[in-house]
Protein backbone atom coordinates (compact mmCIF):
# COMPACT_ATOMS: atom_id res chain seq x y z
CA UNK A 1 0.00 0.00 0.00
CA UNK A 2 1.33 3.41 -1.02
CA UNK A 3 1.44 6.36 1.31
CA UNK A 4 -0.28 9.47 0.07
CA UNK A 5 1.75 12.56 0.69
CA UNK A 6 -0.01 15.82 1.39
CA UNK A 7 1.28 19.31 1.32
CA UNK A 8 0.30 20.81 4.66
CA UNK A 9 0.83 24.32 3.29
CA UNK A 10 -2.00 23.80 0.79
CA UNK A 11 -4.31 22.39 3.43
CA UNK A 12 -3.79 25.32 5.78
CA UNK A 13 -4.77 27.98 3.20
CA UNK A 14 -8.47 28.79 2.94
CA UNK A 15 -10.10 27.88 -0.33
CA UNK A 16 -12.47 30.85 -0.23
CA UNK A 17 -11.49 34.19 1.10
CA UNK A 18 -14.04 36.54 2.51
CA UNK A 19 -14.17 39.98 1.01
CA UNK A 20 -15.49 43.23 2.36
CA UNK A 21 -16.61 44.25 -1.15
CA UNK A 22 -20.30 44.36 -2.01
CA UNK A 23 -21.03 41.19 -4.07
CA UNK A 24 -23.70 43.02 -6.06
CA UNK A 25 -21.33 45.77 -7.08
CA UNK A 26 -19.85 43.65 -9.86
CA UNK A 27 -23.11 42.90 -11.68
CA UNK A 28 -22.82 42.08 -15.34
CA UNK A 29 -23.77 45.09 -17.40
CA UNK A 30 -23.69 45.76 -21.13
CA UNK A 31 -20.21 46.23 -22.50
CA UNK A 32 -19.14 49.79 -23.27
CA UNK A 33 -19.04 48.77 -26.93
CA UNK A 34 -22.70 47.67 -26.78
CA UNK A 35 -23.75 50.84 -24.97
CA UNK A 36 -22.03 52.92 -27.62
CA UNK A 37 -23.86 51.09 -30.38
CA UNK A 38 -27.23 51.60 -28.76
CA UNK A 39 -26.58 55.30 -28.26
CA UNK A 40 -25.29 55.68 -31.77
CA UNK A 41 -28.17 53.82 -33.40
CA UNK A 42 -31.09 54.92 -31.29
CA UNK A 43 -33.06 57.94 -30.23
CA UNK A 44 -35.74 58.53 -27.63
CA UNK A 45 -39.22 59.30 -28.82
CA UNK A 46 -41.76 61.41 -26.95
CA UNK A 47 -42.84 58.52 -24.68
CA UNK A 48 -39.26 57.98 -23.44
CA UNK A 49 -39.12 54.75 -25.44
CA UNK A 50 -35.94 54.08 -27.36
CA UNK A 51 -36.39 53.79 -31.11
CA UNK A 52 -34.05 51.73 -33.27
CA UNK A 53 -32.18 53.71 -35.91
CA UNK A 54 -30.36 51.92 -38.71
CA UNK A 55 -28.81 53.71 -41.68
CA UNK A 56 -30.87 56.84 -40.89
CA UNK A 57 -34.12 54.84 -40.80
CA UNK A 58 -35.98 55.04 -37.48
CA UNK A 59 -38.16 52.18 -36.28
CA UNK A 60 -40.21 53.20 -33.22
CA UNK A 61 -40.26 51.13 -30.04
CA UNK A 62 -42.78 48.33 -30.45
CA UNK A 63 -42.37 47.94 -34.22
CA UNK A 64 -42.90 44.27 -35.08
CA UNK A 65 -40.65 42.39 -37.49
CA UNK A 66 -41.16 39.14 -39.34
CA UNK A 67 -39.07 37.16 -41.77
CA UNK A 68 -39.89 33.98 -43.64
CA UNK A 69 -37.30 31.26 -44.06
CA UNK A 70 -37.88 27.71 -45.30
CA UNK A 71 -41.63 28.05 -44.85
CA UNK A 72 -41.51 29.36 -41.28
CA UNK A 73 -42.08 32.88 -39.99
CA UNK A 74 -39.66 34.34 -37.47
CA UNK A 75 -40.77 37.30 -35.37
CA UNK A 76 -39.00 40.08 -33.55
CA UNK A 77 -39.74 43.45 -32.02
CA UNK A 78 -37.99 46.77 -31.50
CA UNK A 79 -37.20 47.10 -27.82
CA UNK A 80 -34.64 49.24 -25.99
CA UNK A 81 -33.09 50.61 -29.16
CA UNK A 82 -32.47 47.27 -30.87
CA UNK A 83 -34.24 44.55 -32.82
CA UNK A 84 -34.97 41.80 -30.30
CA UNK A 85 -35.42 38.15 -31.31
CA UNK A 86 -35.76 35.52 -28.60
CA UNK A 87 -34.36 37.97 -26.01
CA UNK A 88 -31.24 38.61 -28.15
CA UNK A 89 -30.59 42.16 -29.35
CA UNK A 90 -29.33 43.03 -32.82
CA UNK A 91 -28.15 46.37 -34.12
CA UNK A 92 -28.56 45.54 -37.80
CA UNK A 93 -31.25 43.71 -39.78
CA UNK A 94 -28.53 41.70 -41.53
CA UNK A 95 -27.15 40.35 -38.24
CA UNK A 96 -30.62 39.30 -37.15
CA UNK A 97 -31.35 37.57 -40.48
CA UNK A 98 -27.97 35.82 -40.39
CA UNK A 99 -28.80 34.15 -37.07
CA UNK A 100 -31.87 32.62 -38.68
CA UNK A 101 -30.53 31.63 -42.10
CA UNK A 102 -26.94 30.87 -41.02
CA UNK A 103 -25.84 32.37 -44.35
CA UNK A 104 -25.07 35.96 -45.31
CA UNK A 105 -28.29 37.61 -46.44
CA UNK A 106 -29.55 41.13 -47.07
CA UNK A 107 -31.58 41.84 -43.95
CA UNK A 108 -33.29 44.76 -45.68
CA UNK A 109 -34.90 42.29 -48.06
CA UNK A 110 -35.46 39.55 -45.48
CA UNK A 111 -37.49 41.50 -42.91
CA UNK A 112 -40.99 42.98 -43.04
CA UNK A 113 -42.11 45.42 -40.39
CA UNK A 114 -45.39 46.57 -38.91
CA UNK A 115 -45.27 49.89 -37.12
CA UNK A 116 -47.18 50.28 -33.84
CA UNK A 117 -50.87 50.97 -34.44
CA UNK A 118 -50.67 50.03 -38.14
CA UNK A 119 -52.37 47.02 -39.67
CA UNK A 120 -50.18 46.10 -42.63
CA UNK A 121 -46.72 44.64 -43.07
CA UNK A 122 -44.14 46.36 -45.28
CA UNK A 123 -40.72 45.20 -46.39
CA UNK A 124 -38.14 47.29 -44.57
CA UNK A 125 -36.28 48.14 -47.79
CA UNK A 126 -39.52 49.76 -49.04
CA UNK A 127 -39.92 51.50 -45.69
CA UNK A 128 -36.35 52.76 -46.04
CA UNK A 129 -37.10 54.20 -49.50
CA UNK A 130 -40.22 55.99 -48.20
CA UNK A 131 -38.33 57.51 -45.27
CA UNK A 132 -35.11 58.57 -47.03
Q: How does this model look, in words?
A:
The chain has a domain of 84 residues. A six-stranded antiparallel beta sheet has the order 7-6-5-4-8-9. It is α+β, with helices and mostly antiparallel strands and 132 residues long. The protein is built from five helices and nine strands. 26% of the residues lie in helices and 29% in strands. The protein is globular, with a radius of gyration of 24 Å. A hairpin with a 2-residue loop joins strand 5 and strand 6. It starts with 7 loop residues before the first helix and ends with a helix.
Helix/strand order: HHEEEEEEEHHEEH
Average pLDDT works out at 75
Structural class: alpha+beta
Total beta-strand segments: 9
Into which percentage range does the β-strand content fall? 25-35%
What percentage of residues falls in helices of 4 or more residues?
25-40%
* Total of helices: 5
End-to-end Cα distance, whole Å, is 83 Å
Strand order of the largest sheet: 7-6-5-4-8-9
Low-confidence stretches: 5-46
Largest sheet: 6 strands, antiparallel
- What is the CA-based Rg, rounded? 24 Å
Overall 3D geometry? globular
Question: What's a concise summary of this model?
Answer:
With 132 residues, the protein is of the alpha+beta class. It has helices spanning 8-12, 32-40, 93-101, 107-110, 124-130; strands at residues 42-44, 50-54, 57-59, 64-69, 72-79, 82-85, 88-90, 111-114, 122-123.
